[in-house]
TrEMBL record:
Transmembrane segments: none annotated. Signal peptide: none annotated. It comes from Linum tenue. The chain holds residues 228 to 402 of 411 of the full protein. This is phosphoribosylaminoimidazole carboxylase. In the C-terminal section; belongs to the AIR carboxylase family. Class I subfamily.
Amino acid sequence: VVEARMNSMLVGRGYDGQPAIPPRIGIIMGSDSDLPVMKDASKILTMFGVPHEVRIVSAHRTPELMCSYAASARDRGLQLIIAGAGGMVASLTPLPVIGVPVRSSSLDGMDSLLSIVQMPRGVPVATVAINNATNAGLLAVRILGAGDPDLLARMSQYQEDTREEVLRKAEKLQS
Ligand code: RP5
């Protein structure tokens, strides 16, 4: 129900054959092994009709690419970055950065969580729960929604539909 309604609200926002509009959000990650987690952020942004790009940008393996990506993000029209398994880009862009800790090692994601949430003063990174790229997408929609009434209206509708869906499931369980 939620996704169907969202899709019905996307007509006219580049989703009905019109030319695609430039990305507003960049979803980046250090490796393609993060993609199974980070795809959930892309699903949310697609559901809300927020054009976005998905890139493999590693602070450890391709530091120069990470630096150029972050430094050019605002001028390319991005409004926010969702960073999987790393928040270092936050020191290279004035844009809001949402960090997604990824459970990709024997340390069960704690290594990734601490590396993101413990950023030094002056380099803020909003952090969501380990592997919770869905919440990163929803938080990104809310942040952009502060300046986009249509987007915020879709967030309100999503919340209403989600509540109804939860109540329906609860009633079904109790019946
Ligand atoms: C990080 O190291 C990546 O973002 C990934 O979470 C982890 C393992 O990378 P791979 O060895 O799977 O490429 O930099």
